[in-house]
Design a protein that fits this description.
Elements lengths: L14 E5 L11 E4 L22 H17 L3 E5 L2 E5 L8 H17 L9 H21 L1 H115 L1
Helix pairs in contact: 2-3, 3-4
GO molecular function: dynein heavy chain binding
Keywords: Coiled coil, Dynein, Motor protein
Pfam families: Ax_dynein_light (PF10211)
Length: 260
């Protein structure tokens, strides 16, 4: 694990934490804190204070309570370097007006260095402003712990709201992707169905044309047959008429001599 990156939140100098591995049980391992400089150009911790604490008991208890609140709001950072565990707690030093001015300058400088976007969604800008808000909470908590805890509630509510919007955005994107894939699949199925219907239409048109040709051939053949039948019928009628006329003439020739 590499040392943490620089942050807008003010931290104390890191402290080397070594584990006592002489104990056999893991629960019996004691943490031994030594304030010594790390090797290879590591961060240099503050020297141990000379003499005992000169604060009154009430002030010392209040300071200890403030440190506990600060550690609960902004947990200490930990990292390993050359097999050694380093811990860096948030600073409990009260902030001055100059510290606030420097914080604003550092915020503007980091926004420019990391090329954060001025508008729209930008994770870099969000991270830097979150660090700036944490630093303001630290400064306020040192002066008034209750006010700092209230700001902590505001910070957590903002983070929860942003997380809810992020979840909603991700779910909406996933929903949109599913709908787009469904629409694409539906389009493919519809195009396939259109091709099948067009092929069926062409088959039906071909059948209609074949049936029309058959109907025309049948009508033509039936017209010719009807014409032949009518002609034959007409000739038969004429033949019967002539035969009838001849029979009438013969009958009249037979009946006339008998009358005379």
């Amino acid at each position: 694990m590499i040392p943490p990156n620089s942050s807008l939140v003010k931290y104390d100098n890191p402290v080397l934490v070594s584990r006592n591995t002489e104990k056999k049980t893991p629960r019996a391992r004691a943490l031994k804190t030594t304030q010594q400089a790390p090797t290879n150009g590591g961060p240099v911790p503050n020297p141990p204070p000379k003499g005992g604490s000169k604060l009154p008991p009430m002030e010392q208890q209040k300071a200890q309570q403030t440190d506990e609140i600060l550690n609960s709001i902004l947990p200490p950072r930990e990292w390993t370097e050359n097999g050694q565990l380093w811990v860096q707690q948030v600073s409990s030093t009260p902030a001055t007006r100059l510290d606030v001015v420097n914080l604003q300058e550092q915020l503007d400088m980091k926004l420019q260095q990391r090329q954060a976007r001025e508008t729209g969604i930008c994770p870099v800008r969000r991270e830097l402003y979150s660090q700036c808000f944490d630093e303001l909470i630290r400064q306020v908590t040192i002066e008034c712990a209750e006010r700092g805890l209230l700001l902590l509630r505001v910070r957590d509510e903002i983070r929860m709201t942003i997380a809810a919007y992020q979840t909603l955005y991700e779910s909406s994107v996933a929903f949109g992707m599913r709908k787009a894939l469904q629409a694409e699949q539906g389009k493919f199925d519809m195009e396939k169905k259109i091709d099948e219907l067009e092929g069926e239409k062409r088959d039906l048109e071909r059948q209609v044309n074949e049936l029309k040709a058959k109907c025309e051939a049948i009508e033509k053949r039936e017209a010719e047959r009807r014409s032949v039948e009518e002609k034959k019928h007409t000739e038969e009628i004429q033949f019967l008429k002539r035969t009838n006329q001849q029979l009438k003439t013969q009958l009249e020739g037979i009946i006339a001599p008998k009358k005379s």
